[in-house]
Every structure is written in structure tokens, then in C-alpha cells.
Amino acid sequence: MNSSPTTFPRLRALGDTAWIVEFGSAIDADTHARVMGLAQALADARARGEWAEVVEWAPAYTTLCVHFA
What we know:
By secondary structure, this protein is α+β, with helices and mostly antiparallel strands. The protein has one helix spanning 29-47; strands at residues 10-13, 18-22, 54-59, 63-68. The longest helix has 19 residues, at 29-47.
């Protein structure tokens, strides 16, 4: 049994062109705010012409799925 604490954020591969960024295991306002913060940071970077390889992202309550080329 693994007794080490879970550390967030955690990255999980989703195929070969996406990552799931997990910010927590419980649905709560603070976790969701972190998800939406990363989503906004990606939107801001796109508006500046940065991170062109990130093609879309999809936020959920505790995770953000990031698709890239």
C-alpha cells in the first residue's frame, strides 16, 4: 500500500497529443479556481501568440485537458 501523500497538480498522459492536469480529487471552489486559472493563462498566452502547439483545452471541476499538436 502506498502511504505517500498525493501531490497536485498531477499530469496524466491522454494518448500522444494530450495531457490531463489534475488539481485535486475533491470538487470544491478552490480546486476549480486553479483549473480555471490555468485555462485563463492558456487563453492569455494564445492571445499573445504564444504556445501555438496548444490547440485546445477543456476545463472540468478538478482537471484541465490540454490538447496539443
